[in-house]
């Protein structure tokens, strides 16, 4: 159901991987088209109508992004995406305040670009605290408070996790940081446009946004940088001083327009989308759990975004299940890292057993997912899990009442 051809006549898989990227909303494409053809001026050209048209469109887009998060449009900096925004926020704040402050706090389950930015700062002499998370994927606020040091400049905690969908207590973290006059950055790529976000209520000082996670174009994102109390950044790239001098380079008008339109559509559709996605997610989980025993849902059941579901199917190899489900586009919790199949560091951080971490699959449900697609995915999933388990000697032993934990496996 719902499968389209790529022109070769071969059917394409159903798309259930919206955490990786989302399709472009047709309304977003409509808003971009004029700026890809007729209105091609450089938005920084000040001497003629071509530049003014593009500049007006860019500023309108900036306002649309700001409106979605309760910000002032002057606080929005266009970037190439959330990876760049995260790099700018973390390295920019750390380096600007480095003469007095050399300590940063983040969590072990952040996106790789946050962890790698922190690691690169460690080579520059900064100290980083990587907070552990509890079994449910949430941080312990007491551990956060205990981690503060007199020279802490920044706390960076993502809003919604891209692998397990858990939602951190952003308001509480914002309160704690503001009381100590420490800047708070959040990677909101998976949250923005899906759950209500307000930078003032949540006391967020810097926020990273990505276009292609909210049905906008790839290659564009934004960084929200608070003006009061003012956050200062050292820019990553030098040049003509565009974007308040924080990110030089010509702003790509069509992409910025697309991001703005995606934010405006998300604001209009958020409540409807959320209700629908919640129903579809509950349907998927309920149907799988009722038909298949020994399925574990990773991450907190309550504090989460429903469209990101991470399930571990005990006694099934995640990669085998993915290959069996070749007519559904999904991803596994464990990614191939070079030659070794390492389970996901997010699942390891929440204390998932090695074997369960290897058996996890992430299901993504989005704005355009249909009930038929969910049912088809569920049916195929149940069918292949049962088939793969029948082939598994471990499953057979469990059925015979043997406790696998009690077995001493010998190394040959």
UniProtKB/TrEMBL annotation:
One of its GO terms (biological process) is [4Fe-4S] cluster assembly. Its EC number is 2.8.1.7. Its cofactor is pyridoxal 5'-phosphate. Residues 15-376 form the Aminotransferase class V domain. It catalyses: L-cysteinyl-[cysteine desulfurase] + L-cysteine = S-sulfanyl-L-cysteinyl-[cysteine desulfurase] + L-alanine. It comes from the Eukaryota. Keywords: Iron, Iron-sulfur, Metal-binding, Molybdenum cofactor biosynthesis, Pyridoxal phosphate, Transferase. GO terms for molecular function: cysteine desulfurase activity; iron-sulfur cluster binding; metal ion binding; pyridoxal phosphate binding. Homodimer. Component of the mitochondrial core iron-sulfur cluster (ISC) complex composed of NFS1, LYRM4, NDUFAB1, ISCU, FXN, and FDX2; this complex is a heterohexamer containing two copies of each monomer. Component of cyteine desulfurase complex composed of NFS1, LYRM4 and NDUFAB1; this complex contributes to the activation of cysteine desulfurase activity and NFS1 stabilization. Interacts (homodimer form) with ISCU (D-state); each monomer interacts with the C-terminal regions of each NFS1 monomer. Interacts with HSPA9. Interacts (via homodimer form) with FDX2. Belongs to the class-V pyridoxal-phosphate-dependent aminotransferase family. NifS/IscS subfamily. This is Cysteine desulfurase. It comes from Pomatorhinus ruficollis (streak-breasted scimitar babbler). The gene is Nfs1.
